[in-house]
Amino acid sequence: MRKNQFRPLMQANRDQRRFRRVPGTAKVTVFDGERRRRGWVADISGGGAYLKLDQELESFDAAPEPGRYVDVDIETLSYLGAQVVRAEDAGFAVLFDLDEKQSRELSRLIEAA
User: Fold this and answer.
1) Do 38 and 51 touch, CB atoms closer than 8 A?
2) How far apart are CA 38 and CA 19, in angstroms?
3) Does residue 5 belong to any structural domain of this protein?
4) CATH of the domain at 81
5) Cβ–Cβ under 8 Å, residues 25 and 41
6) 77-113, pLDDT tens digit by residue?
7) Which sign does the torsion angle of CA 18, 23, 24, 28 carry?
8) Which end of the chain has the smaller Cβ count within 10 Å, N or C?
9) SS3 letters across 25-67
């Protein structure tokens, strides 16, 4: 593998996005290996999403910590693996674990919806 082919999953520079972000409202369930959290997609692209947690659920607790791998089940779209890249009080940003071709296809699906 050549040096320029390696791109760590944790790389998430907001100023260098490869795909256009689209506002979302789809329900989402996130599983981090220990807990399930429910919420909705605030925005999404072919590369990642910002997810808001539903604070009215009894099981509400803090967002998964940055660096943690999670399974993201987005209603009406897909079930994806992702890594948390930023966590805040009411939500968190994830970077999808997809190759370039899969990210482009996801971006097309999002923009067509």
Assistant:
1) no
2) 25
3) no
4) 2.40.10.220
5) yes
6) 889 999 999 998 878 999 999 999 999 999 998 888 7
7) positive
8) N
9) CCEEEEECCCCEEEEEEEEECCCEEEEEECCCCCCCCCCCCCC
Question: How many residues are listed for the chain in this entry?
Answer: 113
Name the token pair of 17: 């996005």
Dihedrals phi, psi of 70, to nearest 5 degrees: -135, 160
- Asked if residue 7 is part of any domain, the answer here is no
Looking up tokens 């919420």 gives 39
Euclidean distance between CA atoms 84 and 92, whole angstroms = 7
CA distance 64 to 85: 10
pLDDT at 16: 56
64 occurs within a structural domain: yes
Amino acid identity of residue 111, one-letter, is: E
Is 100 within the bounds of a domain?
yes
Provide the whole-model pTM: 0.78
Domain coverage including residue 56: 20-112
Number of domains making up the chain: 1
3-state secondary structure at position 77: coil
Q: Which two tokens stand for residue 61?
A: 């607790």
